[in-house]
Structure formats: C-alpha cells, structure tokens
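Q: I'm building a small set of examples for a reading group on sequence design. Run inverse folding on the following structure and report the sequence directly after it, with nothing in between.
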C-alpha cells in the first residue's frame, strides 16, 4: 500500500519515513529531497528551485508534479511509496490521485504528525545531517550522540535554510496551504492523527500499529 505522511516542517516526517523504509520495505519519496537534488544541478530550473527554497517558498505544482511522476512510474516502487510531505495543496492532492489511478494504485494510509510550533523551531534550527551516512541529529536534543557520532562531527552539517526567518515563513506557508488538504483527507477512514510532540520511539510504535491493520 502507498502512504501519505503529513506534518509541518520539522515534525519528524523524514525520521519516521526512514523507519518505515527499514521495517516495512518501503520507498521514501520526499519532494524536498527531489527538489534539493535538482537544485544542485547546473541548470536554470536548479537555480530557480535553489532561490525558492532559500527564501522558504514552495516551487510551482508543475515542477513538483513532473519530478513526482518520474518516481511513481518506476515499477520497482509500486504500492510501496511513502509520500513524505506531499501533497501540499488541494490541486496536488487531486493530481496525485490522477497519477496513481493511471498506474492502478491508490493511497491506503494517511498519517498526520501534529507538532507544536515551539518544538518545530528547535527541531529545525538545531537539525544537522551527516554527509556520509545521511543520519539526522539535533544539537538541542542529541548532544551526546553528536559527540560520539561514528562518522565524525565534521561531517554533520546544517542546511542553509534552517534559520528562524525561514522556519517562520515555511510554517506560515504550510498552515495556509496544507491545512485544507488535511481537512480533505481527514474525512476518510484511513486518516490517523498522531501527537508529534511525544518521543520518536512512541511515534514509530504507533505507526507500526497503523500499518499492521
């Protein structure tokens, strides 16, 4: 089955998606990762995406949809996709349905991680990702792990867009555009809301229970 994992920026969607990939053999489709990869390319599109991300804005639906379809059409990931932070608006939700129907697929579970804004600010501004193993740690919550990180502290880097101004812009944009999508999906029986302020292990346990149903 395919899964949509919702939550504001910094809610821990990426962390939980990684657990699902590892424990349930899924493929994580993060539009944020797709856009960052494209932004590193020496193209006009890559430069445009880079500027939008830096300012805390979202790129056009057309760009996101084209990048998305490349992944959905890969038979290797058929009915095993976690949509991490997508769709972000009603138009994207409708487009996702069309693409999935075209390839005889559907969304089986919609999971929303609801997190307080003050927690999100610390999570994002303290976030560090290892360039070697891709593990994500936080300078506020993982001090001991950072000191003992096997790859070495020098490989732990922060994203340039992880600052208070950008966090505020991204959160406000999320609330404005994504809440209507949550209202849309919450009417379905496959929708579940989880308190994202609780521990990572507790959230993982709740998600595991959902996927076993």
């Amino acid at each position: 089955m395919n899964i949509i994992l919702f939550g504001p920026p910094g809610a821990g969607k990426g962390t939980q998606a990684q657990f699902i990939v590892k424990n349930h053999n899924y493929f994580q489709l993060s539009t944020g990762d797709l856009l960052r990869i494209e932004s590193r390319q020496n193209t006009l599109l890559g430069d445009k995406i880079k500027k939008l991300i830096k300012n805390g804005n979202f790129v056009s639906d057309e760009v996101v949809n084209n990048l998305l379809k490349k992944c959905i059409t890969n038979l290797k990931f058929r009915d095993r996709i976690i949509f991490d932070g997508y769709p972000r608006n009603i138009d994207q939700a409708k487009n996702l349905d069309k693409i999935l129907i075209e390839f005889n697929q559907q969304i089986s579970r919609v999971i929303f991680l609801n997190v307080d804004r003050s927690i999100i600010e610390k999570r994002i501004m303290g976030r560090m990702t290892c360039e070697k193993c891709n593990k994500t740690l936080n300078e506020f919550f993982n001090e001991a792990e950072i000191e003992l990180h096997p790859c070495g502290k020098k490989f732990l880097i922060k994203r340039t867009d992880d600052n208070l101004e950008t966090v505020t812009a991204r959160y406000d944009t999320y609330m404005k555009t994504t809440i209507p999508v949550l209202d849309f999906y919450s009417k379905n029986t496959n929708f579940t809301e989880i308190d994202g302020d609780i521990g990572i292990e507790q959230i993982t346990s709740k998600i595991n229970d959902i996927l076993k149903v």
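The chain has a mean pLDDT of 86.
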